[in-house]
Amino acid sequence: MNGPTEMPIATNGDVVLVRQKVRGLAAEIGLSLVDQTKIVTAASELARNALVHAGGGRVHIEVLHGARRPGLRLVFSDEGPGIPDLEQALTEGWSTGGGLGLGLSGSRRLVDEFDLVSAPGEGTRVTVTKWAR
Amino acid sequence: MTVPDEAAKRRIVDLFLSEEERLLRRWTQLSGASPDELRDLYQALRTALVDGAGDFADVRGLLAELSRARVRQGHTPSDTARMVFSLKEALYEAAEADGGPEALRGFVWFSQLVDDLGLYTFETYTAAREKIILDQAEQLLELSTPVVKLWEGIVAVPLVGTLDSARTQVVMEKLLQTLVETGSEHAVIDITGVPAVDTQVAQHLLKTVVAARLMGAECVISGIRPQIAHTIVTLGIEFGDIVTKASLADALSYALRRSGVEITGAERARIAVRAERP
Buried b / exposed e across A84-96, counting CB within 10 Å, b at 16+? Predict the structure, then answer.
């Protein structure tokens, strides 16, 4: 099957490409239509976050082969300003980019595993995983 | 032993001039291109080397034309670049036959020149392609956002593909304009063709609906598929009091009802058929 892929996120067009790649892989490992849409939407949110807040970044996409079921892991990383208050960033409706403020908190609910590492001046890394049911 | 640059250049240019017929023949052989094309190019190069004192504008112009013509004939850009590069091989044979250090040193200089020209054909090709892509992207922006009239007073916008800021702007402008022009009071925004609704798309949709409302029109969002509904709920997006429907048909019948049109199904005639058993 596919090995890990690394994709840049530098423009709006890249966000679309990431989305298409994630959709393709999600379908390939047999995620249901609902789960496909969820991981694609999460990827879209996180890629756009990297673009809007850090001016760009990259995503590492990997297909996991778990004990009983396959999964899809996405690692979004950027070298942006970082997030000073993680709790506040994950609060619903909190936005610094003029959006709805649901991107980060909503993405957490869309996936099975969610990990956010960030500190001011050190960039941000978000790891999300979705397992096939 | 060092060879002065000028002497080396002069020697190779001399070779280039005196061996014209042989070089051209060999170049044609190596590249497989038509002799006429190469002769034109050769002559432009000669003019640039002898009279132009390093002014290659004409050569570049010719190369750009050649590159475009060859693409139309189905050659790849690598083919065209290789055709230019093969001049080096032809000239190298002449330099080798000459054997002098000036000729070989001059060949290095000349080969850099040819490399630049070969790469230029590639650049021309890429630039032409990029322009086509840009034009198409603009056309797509226009094409993919039609506003259609469904009924007297009801317009619809079937959205297909990715909804980014630029497209939303176009959609919103077109929708508002059409509302004015047709005097419609109902608008249906159909998102059946939108693959994923994330917070940005949702925000764009909400803004469009609010803008239409400000103009006195009521908006219905239709084409919400099960997986999209699921995702919207999980994301936590609230559509508030905006009317949403699963299909365009539902949205149309809703809008018709709201504008006072009554729909009655024609009474079905029943015909009973009795088949006789053998």
Answer: eeeeebeeeeeee
Instruction: Pick the closest to residue B109 from B4, B258, B233 (CA basis).
Output: B4
How far CA B237 is from CA of A92, A107, B123, B186, B202, in Å, comes to 10, 12, 47, 24, 8
What is the CB neighbour count within 10 angstroms for residue A39? Answer: 27
Closest CA to B248 of B150, B145, B141, B143: B150
Q: In this predicted complex, what is the ipTM?
A: 0.80
Closest partner residue to B236 (CB to CB) among A34, A36, A105 is A105
> What's A5-131's CATH class?
alpha beta
The pLDDT tens digits along chain B (278 residues) read 455 678 888 888 888 888 888 888 888 888 888 888 888 888 888 888 887 666 788 888 888 888 888 888 888 888 888 888 988 888 888 888 888 888 888 888 888 888 988 888 888 888 888 888 888 877 776 666 788 899 999 999 998 877 777 777 788 888 999 999 999 999 999 999 888 888 888 888 888 899 999 989 999 999 999 999 999 998 888 888 899 999 999 999 999 999 888 777 666 655 555 655 55
Q: Is residue B42 part of a domain?
A: yes
Residue at which a domain ends, from B91, B108, B137: B137
Residues 45-104 of B with CB under 8 A from A: none
Q: Torsion angle, CA of A32/A131/A114/A123, rounded to 10 degrees?
A: -90
Q: 3-state DSSP call for residue B105? A: helix
Cβ under 8 Å to B: A residues 7-46? 12, 16, 19, 23, 33-34, 36-38, 40-41, 44-45
Interface test with B, best of A11, A91, A100, A107 (most B CBs within 10 A): A100
Nearest chain B residue (CA) to A49 = B200
CATH number, position B35:
1.10.490
Structure tokens at A57: 């970044």
Question: How many domains, in total, are found in chain B?
Answer: 2
Q: Which of residues 50-109 of A touch B (CB under 8 A)?
A: 92, 99-100, 102-103, 105-107, 109
The verdict on B182 and B234 lying in the same domain is yes
What are the extents of the domains in chain A? 5-131
pTM of structure = 0.64
Which DSSP state fits B259? T
